[in-house]
Structure formats: C-alpha cells, structure tokens
Amino acid sequence: MFDLTGFTTLKLPFKAKSVIRLTSIENVCVSMQQLGSIPRLVVGGGSNIVVLDPEFEGIVLRPEIQYYEITESGNDVYLEVGAGHSWHQLVMKTLDSGWFGLENLALIPGWMGAAPIQNIGAYGVELKDHCHRVKLYDFEEQAIIELPASQLNFGYRHSLFKELPGRFLVLTVTLKLSKYASPRVSYGTISEELERQGLDAEKPLDIAKAVISIRQSKLPDPDITPNVGSFFKNPVVRSEVADRLQDEFPEMPTYVNGEYTKIAAGWLIDRLGLKGQQIGGFAVNERQALVITNDGTGTADDLRDLVALILSSVEATYGLSLAIEPTQLGRLN
Ligand code: EPU
Asked: Can you give the pTM of this predicted structure?
C-alpha cells in the first residue's frame, strides 16, 4: 500500500493500493480502460476531501495535466487549463496577463480540476460565472467528451459532478475571461479592506490583494494547519423559515434571494459558543467557525464526534440540518 496521507490537506491517515499520475490528455483513455472495475478515487490538490477509511482498496488517480491554451476573441479570452494547475497560481497568472474575472477567487487552495466539482466560490463570485466548458473522461462511455457549462447544473457548491459521483474525470476546464475589468467589490468586507490598504477598487489585481488579506486573516493556511476550508455549506432555506429564525435571532446574517435565503452557518456555530471546541486532535477554528482544523494527531473518530456535536447542537437550537461541504471517502455520520 502507498501512504498518501500527504495528498490531502486534512492529513488523516490514507493508504491506497496504487496511484496513477495522469500527466497528459493523450494517455488518459488507454490508462483508464486498463482500470476495469477496480475502485478508483480522483485526488487533485486534496484540499476538499475527507478520508475516513484509512485504507482504500483501489487506485487513486492524480490528474496532473498541465495543458494551457489561450484563444482570444475580441475582448474575450478563452483559457483551456489542465486539471493539474494550482488554482491560485492560475488566478495570479491571468491577472498578470491582463485577463480579468477571477480576482475575487484568489487564494482558494486546490487544483483546477476540482473547481467545477463543487463550483468554488468566494466574495460574490463563483466558478460558474467564468466556466465556459469542460473536457472530461466519461467512465461509463469510456471516452473523452466535452460539455458546455450550461449542462453542468451549477448551483451553490453544487454541480452535475455531485449528482453523478464517480462518473467523470475532469481533464481540462475552459474559462471565459475578459480584457475589461468588471470589479465586484460589494460582498462582505472587500471595500473596507481596499480602503484600509489604500488599494484601487477599479484594479482587479488590487481586489485580489484585498481578498488575499481577508482570507489570510480569517482562514487557517492548509499548508500549515491541516483543514479543508468550510466544513459545512451555508443552509439555503425558504425565506419564511429564515424570517421566523431572524425574529428569534435578529443578528443572524442572511443572504436573501427571492423565495430562498442563505444563512451563515459560521455564525450559527459561533453563537453556540463552539469556537475552539476540541475533540482529540480536531477543533472548531477560533477565527472562522465553519472551519475544522487538525493539530496533526486527529483521528477519524475524533472528527466524527466533533461533527456530530456541531450538527446536533445546530439542529437542537435552530432546527436546521447542516450539510457537509467536502467530498468524503468513508462515512462521517
Ligand atoms: N460569521 C461569524 N462567525 C464565524 C464565521 C462567520 O459570525 O465564525 C459571520 C460573519 O461575520 C459574516 C457571516 O457569518 O457575517 C459570513 O461569514 P463569511 O463572510 O466569513 O463567509 P462564510 O459564509 O462563512 C463563505 C464560503 C467561504 C468563502 C466566504 C467568502 C461557504 C460554505 N463558505 O463562508 O468559502 O471564502 O463565504 O465568500 O459558502 C470554502 O468553501 O472553503 C470557503 C472558505
């Protein structure tokens, strides 16, 4: 067995029978057809996966494809990017090139291939806003296919890939960017941060700098403190349900979108006094209650117990059931 603990940012023990590194699109079909019915798991940057079974009796596929192709069309730029690119490095590279759109998504950990799976999002922008199409290996058809973004059923931390887990392997993503900046600075504290640092709200690179500062001040760096970012999704409920809760908890942050309202799960957990709550090696982060950290000694059982405590406390006080955000290998609850 290969020890792959270092492949994931949560650093729970992880061994697998074998690893296949996929470095080019050309050899994907042959490599995948040889797999047959052996269980498989795709792991890219490993920053959004929780491994609860320490031994995986299958093959880990690591899409390290570094493909990069630029097509310009008027003021639009289409970038086809291999699944193995670091997301943050890509964001900074596009800004240096004068191609705009990804600035609010700076410093999100992980690789390109994982971005469409959960439709990564931050500070009012989601991948779906700039995803044009994807190139995939379809395990069912045993062929490479392309799908336009319109067929990917993107939603809040949701996509077709969540509906059909295991069916596809992302090979490349084509992003649509622009040579014109369209700054989006109304979300959260971006404007305050720009002002505080004397940065220019019209400049995408400055927006990225502000986002980087905010993230660094709120979120633990997964390279230093093992974590997978937000552990829970913000619950989306019917607006009348949110209104009733807000009568009881007037401070509760909400994002109303017509019939539905998103509630800040971090606030719900924080208000219960759970920040800093520790079970074994796992703890609720002191700065952002949506994040669970591992001090390096945490076990899967510690994590299960801490998650169970958070879920039952939130349910008991607010009547809401939180959904786990990262992908899981094995069962958490
Ligand atoms: N809040 C608290 N206490 C906390 C955490 C948050 O009171 O411990 C409050 C904040 O003060 C704010 C509200 O809750 O009023 C929302 O907090 P924040 O702006 O930090 O965003 P979030 O809803 O907690 C989401 C994403 C993050 C993303 C930020 C910024 C999800 C599950 N998480 O967090 O994404 O960076 O918005 O856009 O949607 C990730 O997915 O890993 C991730 C970090």
From this structure: 0.97
What is the amino acid identity at position 147?
L
Mutation test of ligand 1: which of 207, 215, 256, 290 has the most ligand atoms closer than 8 Å to its C-beta? 290
- Catalytic residue, candidates 47, 157, 193, 215: 157
Task: For the chain, give every residue range classified as CATH 3.30.465.10.
Answer: 68-178
Per-residue DSSP letter, 6: G
Q: Does residue 325 line the site of ligand 1, with CB under 6 A?
A: yes
CATH architecture classification, 2-63 = 2-Layer Sandwich (3.30)
Residues 205-235: tens digit of each pLDDT: 999 999 999 999 999 999 999 999 999 999 9
304: annotated active-site residue: no
Q: Which fold has domain 68-178?
A: 3.30.465
Protein residue with least CA distance to atom 15, ligand 1: 253
Nearest 5°: the CA angle 5, 265, 272 is 100
Atom 26 (ligand 1): residue with closest C-alpha?
Answer: 122
Residue burial 126-158, b: 16+ Cβ < 10 Å; e: rest: bbbbbbbbbbbbebeeeebeeeebeebebebbb
Q: Where in the chain is the domain with CATH 3.30.43.10?
A: 2-63
Q: Dump pLDDT digits (tens) for 68-104.
A: 999 999 999 999 999 999 999 999 999 999 999 999 9
Is the Cβ atom of 133 under 6 angstroms away from ligand 1? Answer: no
Look up the CATH number of domain 227-329.
3.90.78.10
Nearest CA to ligand 1 atom 28: 122
CATH 3.90.78.10 in the chain, residue ranges: 227-329
Helix 204-218 crosses helix 87-96 at what angle (to 10 degrees)? 150
Main-chain dihedrals φ then ψ at residue 294, nearest 5 degrees: -115, 130
CA of 123 to the centre of ligand 1 (A): 9
| 161-167 average pLDDT score | 96
